[in-house]
Design a protein that fits this description.
single chain, methyltransferase, Beta-clip-like, transferase, Histone lysine methyltransferase Set7, five-stranded mixed β-sheet, 2 helices, histone H3K37 methyltransferase activity, binds S-adenosylmethionine, five-stranded antiparallel β-sheet, SET_dom, globular
């Protein structure tokens, strides 16, 4: 299957050339739009250390409190990494979910990507296939604050 449409949402899961599947916008999305709220499945520290980390889960989970790891259900596990992301995320630990927002205006057919940080475990496809959107200064500082 090449694409999965998401019914009433202007988003689609597509195969990419170098990154596996990814999430794409089908229309213009304004900055700071909430595009997804993913419920999170939590793994206890021991469960993850003894089992989870040796499986494919290790490419998908988010660090959670008390040494736990969280798997974002829904779209949250489908966002690829970009060193200049157009999506940021916020953990909501009490409600065990992660919300995802656009960092800037997103154009139709643009891939929606988050930043995984500096320690990548794969060859970064975003380094070469980077989109050439010039991020305005104020959006840049907003991103810097989030990542600090
Ligand atoms: C959370 S998953 C993202 C969804 C994944 N593409 C899929 O098809 O299931 C993380 C994995 O996606 C791939 N990936 C994400 N961002 C990438 C990038 N910038 N360059 C290459 N591979 C990437 C890597 O294989 C990574 O382990």
């Amino acid at each position: 299957m090449k694409t999965i449409s998401l019914f009433d949402r202007p988003l689609e899961i597509r195969d990419t050339e170098t990154k596996g599947r990814g999430v794409f916008a089908l229309e213009h999305l304004p900055a700071h739009t909430c595009i997804e709220i993913s419920p999170v499945l939590l793994f206890q520290k021991e469960q993850y250390e003894n089992h989870g980390q040796y499986t494919v889960l290790n490419e998908y989970t988010y660090v959670w409190s008390a040494g736990r790891q969280g798997l974002a259900l829904g779209l949250g596990s489908m966002f690829n990494h970009d060193r200049c992301p157009n999506v940021y995320w916020k953990k909501d630990e009490p409600n065990r979910c992660i919300s995802y927002f656009t960092l800037r205006q997103v154009h139709p057919n643009e891939e929606l990507c988050i930043s995984y940080g500096d320690q990548l475990w794969f060859d970064d496809g975003s380094a070469s296939s980077h989109n050439h959107y010039d991020q305005p200064e104020e959006e840049n500082s907003f991103l810097q604050n989030l990542l600090l």
